[in-house]
Automatic annotation (TrEMBL):
It comes from the Eukaryota. It holds the Pfam family CDC14. InterPro entries: Cell_div_Cdc14. Signal peptide: none annotated. PANTHER family: CELL DIVISION CONTROL PROTEIN 14. This is Cell division control protein 14. Residues 38-64, 220-240 are annotated as: Disordered. It comes from Rhypophila decipiens.
Length: 302
């Protein structure tokens, strides 16, 4: 696994679009192998197909693993252990690549690579939630907020909004950074913009629904017992979010980029409703009413 990651990282760090595309494909292939089961060696006969009759495409497509099964999967355990350190952490390698692609924006070819990189970041954060600590850093949160700006194409905006949800999920410290960087202003301004396409407005509405749900006070932490017991302190998760943010400081820009450290404090739904109401007066009550009526998140606001 290390050799494959090494090849992928070499390609991702190049300044060649073709090599970057290859690196993204290599990372995608690795994640796919972790998330997909091996083809069953037994008979083709299954309960869903008692006569063994299935299309060639169905027979060649390995089934997805159930999330609960991943913890006992040796490949996933090895992957998770590697992600705990700086050297092999995929999210940390994808973010500089994404930043470079954004600098080359305005080209459809690079837009496709940006969407691909965002999709992979989503996957890595879901498979290795502790990597979300990277988005407690101002520069990385600002990168996502920049990608939501109207100058970007709808596909990039939609993929970024989904990535933002994943980065904030169960991470109050990341949400506080998002708020301090005027993330709500960015989201609501795009929502009110008459030029924003329907697909993006749908994603923005989903984000607001998500933002108005109760927060879970959990912070990704490293396991106290690393496999191998080498006791090294160089792992990604050995540092707290506040230390990460303080170490890298803030840069200049049109938003308030003065955040030096993030608070993991959990805010109430009422407080967040007040924040949203600043930018979308009268809309927040309709959003909460929809949440209560349609219960898209299992009715947790009821």
């Amino acid at each position: 696994m290390e050799s494959l990651l090494s090849l992928a990282f070499d390609n991702l760090s190049s300044y060649d679009g073709i090599k970057i595309k290859k690196g993204l494909k290599q990372v995608e292939g690795l994640l796919a192998q972790i998330c997909l089961s091996s083809p069953r060696p037994s008979s083709r006969q299954t309960p869903a197909d008692p006569l063994g009759i299935q299309s060639s495409s169905e027979s060649q497509r390995p089934p997805r693993k159930v999330l609960a099964d991943l913890s006992s999967d040796p490949a996933f355990r090895e992957f998770f252990k590697l992600q705990d350190g700086f050297e092999w952490n995929i999210a940390q390698r994808l973010l500089p690549t994404l930043d470079w692609l954004v600098a080359r924006g305005g080209d459809g070819q690079y837009d496709l690579l940006i969407v691909n990189a965002l999709d992979l970041i989503q996957g890595v954060l879901l498979l290795h939630p502790p990597s979300k600590v990277l988005f407690s850093r101002t520069m990385h949160m600002n990168l996502l907020l920049d990608l939501i700006e109207p100058v970007n194409c709808p596909a990039v905006q939609s993929a970024t909004i989904i990535t933002l949800v994943v980065a904030l999920l169960d991470c109050p410290q990341n949400t506080r950074v998002f708020e301090r960087l005027d993330g709500l202003l960015t989201i609501t301004s795009l929502f009110k913009d008459p030029d924003t396409v329907r697909e993006v407005k749908f994603r923005l509405t989903e984000f607001l629904y998500f933002y108005l749900t109760p927060e879970t006070p959990s912070i990704p932490k490293a396991s106290s017992s690393n496999q191998g017991g080498n006791g090294n302190n160089n792992g990604l998760l050995q540092r707290s979010p506040s230390k990460l943010v303080g170490a890298f400081g803030a840069g200049g820009g049109k938003r308030d980029r003065s955040v030096s450290e993030s608070s993991g404090a959990v805010l109430s739904v009422e407080t967040k409703k007040h924040y949203v109401d600043r930018y979308l007066p009268g809309v927040v009550d309709l959003l909460v009413k929809d949440l209560d009526t349609y219960k898209p998140f299992g009715g947790i606001l009821s």
